[in-house]
Every structure is written in C-alpha cells, then in structure tokens.
C-alpha cells in the first residue's frame, strides 16, 4: 500500500548509454534524456570517464547512483534533461 504518490522527478529506471547520456524513466512514466558529459569536468565525477563504470548507473529510490560516493540528484536530472523521443 502506497501512502503517498512519488513526485514526478523520482527516477524509476535509468539506462546509461555509451555516448554518456542517461535515458531516464521518471515516476510518472515520462522518459527523458540527460547528457552527463558536462559532469565529467568535475573532480567528483571523474570516475564516470571510465565507460564501463558509467554504464553501471542504477536508480536508487530517487537519484541515479554509481557507488556510495557518486550520485546525481533526481531534481537536477529532471530539470536538466530533455524529453526522449519514443
């Protein structure tokens, strides 16, 4: 039983792609495309430059995470992404 509806920006699923974009499905079913390449310039996100590591992105109750140290806030992902075609 759900007590409360999730906000639209909660990440339900994510698929990391080889071009450093994330295809994200949000709680309302909306699919959006996020370009992660600008993050690669920031020191905390430098491990994402490794394609094998980047492709291990997963949704974790809201944010997109890679490990205990690297995640991206769902609000940022929603606001900074574009509607995905299809």
Task: Kindly list the characteristics that best describe this protein.
three-stranded antiparallel sheet, globular, NE0471 N-terminal domain-like, 86 residues, 29% strand, four-stranded antiparallel sheet, 2 helices
Helices and strands, in order, run as EEEHEEEHE
User: In the CATH classification, which architecture applies?
Assistant: 2-Layer Sandwich
The CATH topology: NE0471 N-terminal domain-like
The main sheet orders its strands as 1-2-3-7
| Most strands sheet | 4 strands, antiparallel
Give unreliable regions as ranges: none
Proportion of residues in helical segments: 10-25%
User: How would the global form be characterised?
Assistant: globular
In total, the number of strands is 7
Quote the average pLDDT: 92
Strand fraction equals 25-35%
What is the top-level CATH class? Alpha Beta
**What is the total domain count?**
1
Account of the protein in words:
The chain has about 90 residues and is of the alpha+beta class. It has two helices and seven strands. The chain has helices at about 50-55, 75-80, and strands at about 10-15, 20-25, 30-35, 60, 65, 70, 80-85. The strands form two sheets. The chain has a four-stranded antiparallel β-sheet with strand order 1-2-3-7. A three-stranded antiparallel β-sheet has the order 4-5-6. The model has no long low-confidence stretch (mean pLDDT about 90).
């Amino acid at each position: 039983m759900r007590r409360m509806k999730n906000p639209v920006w909660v990440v339900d699923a994510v698929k990391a792609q080889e071009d450093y974009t994330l295809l994200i499905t949000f709680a309302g079913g909306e699919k959006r495309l996020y370009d992660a390449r600008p993050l690669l310039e920031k020191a905390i996100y430098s491990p994402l430059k490794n394609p094998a590591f980047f492709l291990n992105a997963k949704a974790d109750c809201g944010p997109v995470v890679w490990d205990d140290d690297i995640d991206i806030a769902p609000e940022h992902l929603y606001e900074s992404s574009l509607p995905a075609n299809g």
